[in-house]
Design brief:
The protein is α+β, with helices and mostly antiparallel strands. It contains 17 helices and 25 strands.
Amino acid sequence: MKKASFYSTNELQVSGWLKKQLEIQANGLSGNLDKIWPDIRDSAWIGGTCEGWERVPYWLDGFIPLAYLLKNEDMIARAKRYIDAIISQQCEDGWICPCKEEERASYDTWAVLLITKTLTVYYECSKDERIPDVLYRTMKNYYELLKSKKIKLLLWGNARWYEGCIALNFLYERYEEDWIKELTQILYEQGMDYLSHSHKWVRPLNMWRSECHIVNIAMMLKSEAVSYELLGAKYTDLAEKLSKILKKYNGTAVGLFTGDECLSGSSPIQGSELCSVVEQMYSYELLYLHTRDRKWAERLEVLAFNALPATVSDDMWTHQYDQMSNQIACQRFPGRSIFRTNGAEAHMFGLEPNFGCCTANFSQGFPKLAISAFIKDGDTVESALMLPVCLEDGGIKISVDTEYPFKNKVKYSISADRDFKFKIRIPSFAKNLKVNGKNTDTSDLFFSIPANTDTEIDVSFETEPYFEKRPNNLKTVKCGSLVFSLPIEYEAKMYEYERNGVERKFPYCDYEYIPKSDWNYAFSDTSLKLSYRDVSDIPFDSKNPPVVISAKVKKIDWGYEDGFETVCAKVPQSRKAISEEESIELYPYGCAKLRMTELPIIK
């Protein structure tokens, strides 16, 4: 029986707010890196002299689906030029990375795992029939080198062994050859066992350790889901077991785990790396696809609608390396960094703050979210995510009209030339659920769609804002999949310069965000009022958010973290009111670039 799968970009048409977001991304950094950034423009992957390891595969992993979702012929052609150049350099024995043969033994083959994943994405978008053979030869060569012990998994390859399973599952569906399962077993045996290291996540330290590296961990969450069938193992929901530990000791208000760059505890002034946001999203997408456990889809939404937009500028020309829940300023630290293992510029918005991996890797976030909107499972089509995406699968056409998550109404317009089953995943937090105006009490909706009949399904529900507990007796406001923050007005101070041969100039320069409004507040009342607005051409608009919550607050003497002038204290130094009560509008976390997300409630 064919496995459940996401649909190809050829079968999807984005619309509404999601199309606007993807167009912003295409017009911003993601869509232009090959023109401006040496590590992409002049990479060794295409015969140049710059970085030839992870950055081009990272970038293509998001640029390719972005190009195909927007049906952008120029971007599609540019992606093909990169793929053609990479394929043209493949050695006769199958080796594909830009590395001399005598250097293979010391080469970190994380790049092999990554480029094969990216080539798999390219095939799913382009249906380029060269790709299965390229992947077969690459992985067969990798198998032979590992089996003969001419190479072994080194640092990053050891930590990310499971990433190779994306291509290996692709290959096994087509070839069903034993060596594919044997290679999976070799990777599993040489790869890191995160469960055996999970005790180290309880008390984060100010030191770099691969087993505590936040991006490794975000990627790892999908490891069992993508490997257990190839390994002939039983699925045990390892991701949930490890997630509980991570959430308890390193969780954030927006579903991330702190990691700047390694796990950093539960403080709202520690950071989370942007690479971990998009990799955790991808893990949740595949976890839901493989397990159909709704918790992964709901956790995905929280990341996608909060953590991802919060850490990129409105025009998506700049991004942070680290985001903070309570982020009162994004200014270069004059002394030591607040972050455990990241530098003084990691929370600034720019071209490549701290390190360039996120510059290349963040592109995958929104495009892969769009691809995850529908799932094909036998004769059932599932609306897994309520996104404005149109699906055309042969004679089946499903159009989705919605502004979710900003408004809780979704209209499905369906036509088909054959009977099929249709499922709609309903969020667990939905209240007063109605289908075509009638009250419904169910966790998911199932329909039998008849052939040659137009069908419309109107789904609506309500969400209520509430306070969620955070460590140190602080609270966060949530409503559905959205987290809300107290926004801080700011001035953006621009820096144009060149460093190590990399130019920063408008619009891909660096910025400090300097606060211009008060932030030292506490909630003074538990009443919350939700108000809806129009969704602008910038869906997560930092000036005009599509939804706000009115809350009552008073100022307190919060104070700064010891030794810092631009970081609020981890916990308020006083919870006594020092002002009269006032009403303030909370913004969605993704719209508030400077923000206070975890606040106390005072009497």
